[in-house]
Amino acid sequence: MGITVIPKLLLAKSANRPDRKLSEIAEEGKYYRHPDSALISYPLVVKEPLGTVNKPLKIAIVGAGAAGIASLYELCKLKDSKKYISVDIYESDHDHFLNVPVNYAIRTSGLKAGRVSAAISSDEPAPANSDHAVYEIGAMRFPEIAGLMWHYACAVYGSEETVSVFPNPGTVPTELVHGDRAERFMNGEWLNENSPTKQIVDVIQKGLVGQGVGDNTSLFPIGGQDPAKISAKLKNKDTTEAELKTIKEQWKIFTKENDKYTLEAAVRQIIEAQHKALPDIDGLKNTEEKISYYVELFGTVGFGTGGFRSVFNMSILEMMRLLLWDYSNEYVLPVKKANVDFLSNFFMKAMESNDRVNVKRARVCDVCHLDGNDNGDTIVVYYEIDELGKECKEPMKAEYNYVILATTPKQTSSLISKIGFNNADARRVPLGDHGRQLTPDQYVGSVRPALVLSKKYDVPNSKLFSAVTNIHMVCSSKIFATVKKTDFDSFAPEFSDKGKIKAIVADCGLGSSYVVPSTILNEKMRNKSKDYYSFLISYAWESDSKGMQHNFGKYPLNIEDTQHLMSAVVGRATRYVKDPVNGTYGPWWYGEALGKSNLEDPLSYDWTTFQTAGAFKLNNVGDNYNCDLLFRYHTHALSPALKNKFFLANCSYSHLGGWLEGAFMSAVNAVCGLIVAANDGDVNALSTEARKVVQSLENVVENNE
């Protein structure tokens, strides 16, 4: 779940791609190096075991989402893993696939793993249900350039398995509505080839990312070159180490110079420079109004899969990272039920190498370093959860050699702050929730903070808490329904010879709307489902999502009181617009389709209010320092005198917040750091490629006195 950025969907004429083998897609991002880690190709790092350990280790992984399971997989892959490594993995979501809760008519039982999450709509409560559709609430599409993602998919499903293109807006007949302006396009073909919308996208693309060949056009060059040219070098396997080191330094300069710009500021700057090249708009009085109109128009259309207006406050650095991560298509996974099957099978794949894994259904409330205890160097305090999802009253504890926190920022900040940030003096304090704590006489030893950078000074340690706490998490929500094809298609217009409109991007507050793939489990319903669309009515962010929150029935998953929500949705899509074919004004067909079709199995999900998964990370202006600090946190392992036994793994602690690729990268970072720490700071315990994960990034420990 993250922001898709594919300018090619709007501008480049291309044919629909056939199904592809996983091995083919895995090649797309095999050599890509992200600008913040320009010397590291993560798929090459994980091709072989990351390194070795030669002593028994008891490890805790808190959180069983994508990052937690990837951490487990890489630990289990290590040589002699079964001999030396045992793992406890904690998960508090009783709907997680590792747990077995009660089922409901709309159910999430066994369908969740952090942000990889789904819901099934059914006629009756399980087990006698007839499944209608599987709604992918999170992680529904996967970029072809996500090298780690497809490397792991090959490991789970085999390289010969095939996958299909996800029907993003722009890959299917798509309609855009801004004000009363309506546009239609697909694969670079537009109903109006001279459309101002098409032209503004072209202007912004050239002004931001520039051109891969020819003259430089970007107003935001990296080292004097268009970012498109830098992207080509980052993807090319033959780019030399010297060139990559240069890019690394150029990107560092770029981040310092541009972290002050929002995406909106960058878009406005480009339009101000190029407004004469854009068509005049009737009714606008002057240049200032023209510029503002085009800023808002681009805010609606974005780069094809949904507008950026609601996230215009994001840092331009975040957008540039996504533009450098250049790709053409996103794909679905070859799953039989839901995308959570991928992580479930990934978990089982890890267990093939090392079955010394214990799953704990529990909520962790505190984690600390622990001195003076023979059982381990860290303590985890938790509350067990029963099969019905109810917490036990009494706190439990366990000691470990190392802990990987694969938790969201909201969770992590609550785990690490209670004992303060002084790392010089260990102390004995109560641990756990107010009113039901673990007293000091119930554990052996004394405690220090979990996340530390200094033995002597409090401030370096407290800035880690600040970095985690101040991560900007995007408000995000989805609204689904199933609709009869005949009902919807009777309203949807045709676009050229491409077929009926299947995706809508508009400024009505619903974000993006489109027909999405859905797996039907029940054979009877599978036959019936041929007559239905699984429809993502709204995928919204920030202000659009917040604007709908008061209409949601039950947080975070709305399985009751849907009539009020559906009425609000129809209300947003009701307006008069100008028909782009005949130029007449009339009711917008989309509002008519939603209002007059029978919308079955409605479901809404508000990610913002969900504790263990949350929304997704998106840096605002000034956030780059904290983001980069957390991404490099594992490098503290190079300073063994610090006696730091904790590591972070989550997409929010990466430079690709929201994408599984970011979660997997942070997991690799965490395991590499753990291996180095377990070998007393010896980086040679890592494989040759894995050493880059620690050595090529700046060490976070500035002063370990």
Describe the structure.
InterPro entries: FAD/NAD-bd_sf (IPR036188). This is Phenylalanine 2-monooxygenase. There is one protein chain. This protein is an alpha+beta fold. Helices cover 32% and strands 21% of the residues. The protein contains 23 helices and 33 strands. Strands 12-11-10-25-26-27-22-31-28 form a 9-stranded mixed sheet, sandwiched between helices. Strands 2, 3, 14, 15, 16, 17, 20 and 33 form an 8-stranded mixed sheet that branches. Strand 10 (174-178) and strand 11 form a beta hairpin. Helix 7 (196-208) packs across helix 10, helix 7 (196-208) packs across helix 11 (287-301) and helix 22 (660-678) packs across helix 23 (688-695). It is globular, with a radius of gyration of 25 Å. The two termini are 41 Å apart. Residues 100-104 have low confidence and may be disordered.
**What is the C-alpha radius of gyration, as a whole number of Å?**
25 Å
Poorly predicted regions: 100-104
Spatial order of the strands in the main sheet? 12-11-10-25-26-27-22-31-28
Question: What fraction of the residues are assigned to beta strands by DSSP?
Answer: 15-25%
Query: Structural class of the helix and strand makeup?
Result: alpha+beta
User: Helix content range of the residues, please?
Assistant: 25-40%
Oligomer: single chain
Report the biggest beta sheet as strand number plus sense, adding barrel if it closes.
Answer: 9 strands, mixed
Please count the helical segments.
23
> What is the averaged pLDDT score?
89
N-to-C CA distance = 41 Å
Shape: globular
Count all strands and give the number: 33
